[in-house]
Amino acid sequence: MASSTLQSFVARAAALACQRPDPADCVLALAPLMLELTEQATAFLEPRHYRSDPAHYARHLVYAAPDASLSLYALVWSPGQWTPVHDHCCWGLMSVLEGVLEERSYVRMSPDCRTDEGIQLVRGGVALLQRGAVAGFVPNPEHIHVTGVSQERSRAVSLHLYGRTMNGFNTYDVSAGTRQHVSVEHNDS
Ligand SMILES: [Fe+2]
Question: How far is residue 96's CA from residue 38's CA, in Å, rounded to a whole number?
């Protein structure tokens, strides 16, 4: 983490986050910092952070806190690349550096959030996030969504900040009403 821009962001974000145990307070406080960071992304992102992967969206680790309280990634989305339906089990902020990132939300109708079966999800809203946009989410109940880039659009690049090391999350099978935990390496998709 050589860049002073990134060092400053991480220090301020960590300080604000640890003062705010409520995730909603946390994303509220950190959203302006994320906006600022996004405007200065060329100061700390390297060519490797912009690499795409023809098989699926590419996820590049930019920073991971030693105490696992924060992690920052650059994601590169080629046209037609999407995540599965998923949640994060933590608060998060995403911002767009290039292109248009689409977010399609789902709403969990079944009341018990602890079960992995019998999950009723209905489609919710949609957001088209252009360059410079920042969006945040909180857990409990989980924020469930799909993000990606439509086939007819050009490549998108986005930044994603999470309130923990992002080494796993839940994916959902909407029609089966199930979810499963997926473990990922820091720099894997
Ligand atoms: Fe997500």
Answer: 7
What is the maximum span of the chain, computed from C-alpha positions, in angstroms?
48
Q: What is the pTM of this model?
A: 0.94
Per domain, the residue ranges of the chain are 4-183
Please state the rounded mean pLDDT for residues 69-94: 97
Phi-psi region of 23 (alpha: psi -120 to 50; beta: other; left: phi over 0): alpha
Judged on CB neighbours under 10 Å (0-12, 13-18, 19+), 117 is exposed
> What's the gap in Å between 145 CA and the centre of ligand 1?
6
**26 alpha carbon to ligand 1 midpoint, in Å?**
17
Residue type, 139: P
End-to-end Cα, the chain, rounded Å? 21
pLDDT surpassing 80 at residue 146 = yes
Domain 4-183, second-level architecture: Sandwich (2.60)
> Residue 30: in which H helix or E strand, if any?
helix 23-39
The burial class, CB within 10 Å (0-12 / 13-18 / 19+), for 47 is exposed
Are 132 and 79 a contacting pair, CB within 8 Å? no
Residue with tokens 């290039």: 98
Give the tokens for residue 45. Answer: 């992102």
Whether cis (ω within 30° of 0) applies to the bond prior to 32 is no
pLDDT band at 1 (very low <50, low <70, confident <90, very high): low
Ligand 1 centre to CA of 106 (Å) is 11
